[in-house]
């Protein structure tokens, strides 16, 4: 007689690993500094409005000209004024009360946006006016951004600067994710005048955040704006190889991996969907930035910021190449619904393009967290305004150079070429540059050295 097999105990179902709380973004800056909290809220709402105007101007120029290169030139025309404003604004931030400098620059941004709205409401807008007011807007914003970045280390202890940078990623995510998509819908259904007007209203929140700050004068030796101040900044930068290389790496990424100026044409003739596709593609970049900031707990605890910058920018390059491959697929007519135009979209490829762009946004935001923290921790307060001015020029100027690269190359070849080629260039060039500067890879956030 056979013995019945021993009964096995019931198998306990495996639990899925739970996401630990320390994986999420660090919110201690809000609890530590009410002034930082108010500034963050004001900057987020104003940034959301600013994105409405940026996308609306791109669409407005494309509607008036039908020319992709003209859309690219919106960014290029403002490049030199923005560089000069950023550099001089940084000197102002190192010589005067940073709160006052930021308030004056924000007022210029407000007036230029108000003029855009008035011109649109009266039907007097021209391509020339769009170019001029966009240049004024971007120049004033570069001063505001540089000054606010120089203010942040005075509101928070050094150990919370990575968390503050991650919260800035949330700001970018909200304003760029919601802004372009909302701009596309507003332009499509209500027109340009309403879009610019909403930005005017949202801009008022920035004044609240700045107005309630305490006076913040720079510490250390104060040098009045001028050639002497500029020479001091250049001299410091020459002796700051880590800061210098992060500038170069960011310019590389933004020059060869920033195809936003092509989005109106891509939405009109390659992927279809028109203005709504333009907004969705731009918003997907911000969605990636938002997600990477939301789960930025481990990012903030990683101390080797040089390596973090290198790896994240190379991932950015790989995702840019993937976006180019999606556009090649669209050019070949794959997954097309028969007709692709502003009213008929290639939905499958639009989704794939959004995934690739979300990956670029996530990677760029991780790089930005490390770059911003390095800037704020390694640069002394007496130099912080000038170096933040240069930093803002790099951050805002790189995409404008990228717009020119993308517009010219796409005009000479095809819409998919700039992204496909540019992503490969980023991966290779970043690897070479970091290899030539091994000290950058060993940068330690606990012992910051410029």
TrEMBL record:
Source organism of this protein record: Microbacterium flavum
Spans traversing the lipid bilayer: 39-62, 68-88, 100-121, 127-151, 163-187, 193-213, 247-270, 276-295, 315-336, 348-370, 390-408, 414-434
Listed InterPro entries: MFS_trans_sf (IPR036259), TM_effector (IPR010290)
Predominant cellular place of this UniProt entry's protein: membrane
Localization, UniProt: Cell inner membrane
Database matches in SUPFAM superfamilies: MFS general substrate transporter
Membrane topology: Multi-pass membrane protein
Name of the featured protein: MFS transporter
Keywords attached to this entry: Cell membrane, Membrane, Transmembrane, Transmembrane helix, Transport
């Amino acid at each position: 007689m056979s013995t019945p097999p021993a009964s096995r105990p019931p198998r306990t179902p495996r639990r899925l690993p739970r996401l630990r709380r320390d994986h999420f973004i660090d919110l201690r800056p809000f609890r530590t500094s009410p002034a930082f909290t108010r500034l963050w809220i004001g900057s987020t709402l104003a940034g959301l409005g600013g994105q409405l105007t940026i996308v609306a101007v791109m669409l407005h120029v494309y509607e008036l000209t039908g020319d992709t290169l003209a859309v690219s030139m919106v960014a290029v025309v403002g490049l030199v004024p923005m560089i000069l404003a950023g550099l001089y604004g940084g000197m102002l931030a190192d010589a005067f009360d940073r709160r006052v400098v930021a308030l004056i620059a924000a007022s210029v941004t407000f007036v230029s946006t108000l003029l855009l709205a008035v011109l649109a409401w009266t039907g007097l807008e021209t391509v020339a006016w769009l170019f001029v007011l966009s240049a004024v807007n971007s120049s004033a914003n570069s001063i505001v951004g540089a000054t606010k970045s120089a203010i942040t280390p005075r509101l928070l202890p050094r150990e919370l600067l990575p968390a503050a940078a991650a919260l800035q990623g949330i700001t970018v995510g909200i304003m760029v994710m919601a802004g372009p998509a909302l701009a596309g819908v507003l332009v499509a259904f209500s027109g340009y005048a309403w879009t610019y007007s909403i930005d005017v209203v949202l801009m008022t929140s920035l004044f609240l955040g700045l107005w309630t700050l305490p006076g913040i004068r720079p510490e250390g030796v104060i040098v009045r704006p001028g050639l002497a101040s500029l020479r001091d900044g250049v001299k410091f930068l020459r002796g700051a190889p880590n800061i210098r290389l992060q500038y170069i790496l960011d310019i590389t990424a933004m020059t060869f991996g920033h195809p936003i100026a092509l989005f109106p044409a891509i939405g009109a003739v390659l992927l279809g969907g028109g203005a709504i596709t333009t907004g969705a593609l731009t918003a997907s970049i911000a969605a990636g930035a938002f997600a990477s900031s939301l789960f930025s707990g481990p990012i903030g605890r990683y101390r080797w910021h040089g390596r973090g910058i290198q790896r994240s920018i190379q991932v950015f390059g790989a995702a840019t190449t993937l976006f180019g491959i999606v556009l090649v697929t669209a050019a070949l007519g794959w997954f097309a619904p028969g007709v692709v135009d502003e009213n008929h979209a290639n939905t499958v490829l639009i989704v794939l393009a959004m995934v690739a762009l979300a990956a670029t946004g996530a990677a760029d935001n991780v790089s930005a967290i490390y770059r911003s923290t390095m800037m704020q921790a390694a640069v002394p307060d007496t130099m912080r305004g000038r170096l933040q001015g240069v930093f803002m020029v790099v951050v805002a100027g790189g995409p404008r150079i990228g717009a020119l690269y993308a517009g010219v190359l796409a005009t000479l070849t095809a819409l998919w070429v700039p992204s496909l080629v540019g992503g490969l260039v980023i991966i290779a060039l970043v690897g070479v540059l970091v290899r030539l500067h091994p000290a950058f890879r060993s940068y330690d956030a606990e012992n910051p050295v410029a």
